[in-house]
Here is the input.
Amino acid sequence: MLSLFKPQLRAEMTALRQIERMGFRAADVRDIVLTHLDFQQAGGLDDFPRARVHLLMNERDHAFAQKTWLDRQRYRPQQWSTRNRWVVYDPEAGGEPWMGLQSVRALVGLPPEILILPLAGHTRGHAGVAVHGLTGWHLHAGDAFHDPRELNTKPRNRLGLRMLQSFMAVDGRARADNTRRLRELHRHHPDITIFCSHDAASFERLSGRAADTLPDAVAWSARDPYAEKIVRRPMEAAPSGPLGVPGLEVTEHESDALDFEPVPFRRDDTAHPRQ
Ligand SMILES: [Zn+2]
Here is the structure.
């Protein structure tokens, strides 16, 4: 299945190496908001052992259950060493309307400019992630669609992507319903930037660089990446404990004291070798 997606397998292209290139460290990544647990999306989680991972409850439960052949191909338990730091949300248990979409949730310990919303179909607990930044709302729709032209008034989709989409979708009707909702969202709120995971053209337009190139390296001496997000404190006033970085405190994480329990997971993955 890996060969279907032709991923870049160069170490310097991993999220960790790119973040380091921009002057940060793995430990600076405190929160990861995940659209779903397919192995392409979850592959880098273990590189950020201090991050809380936010995702929908359904997604975690279906990934753990490994009920179907497709689930066993797409979900890789060996990528889940941080599962005791996953924070899950049940859209059935609450949420609010947002721009015409339902069951939208703010995230524990994060500002209200970051939201998670259910977009099931590709997987049972697939989510979109909305972020309000300097240029307005951006909605990362994950694998809810694969061809951005699906959001056009007259939707289009390349044949190959259409086949891949229906092969990978666990619920074709839910996927189609959610694509229709995203199309409506785009029609009523064209100012919201909606993009998906596997669309290099959108990535290049939004990031300003080619998809197969690295971000500009940031020299520590030229720009201190902590200046904007970290409050420096004298060493003696620094919080101690496993999550504290001596002398530093991340301003947006005043309360990092979530109660994490070990999450058992027993399936023997050797019964389902990689393709
Ligand atoms: Zn996927």
Remarks:
- The pocket of zinc ion is lined by residues 36, 38, 122, 143 (CB under 6 Å).
- The two ends are 6 Å apart (CA to CA).
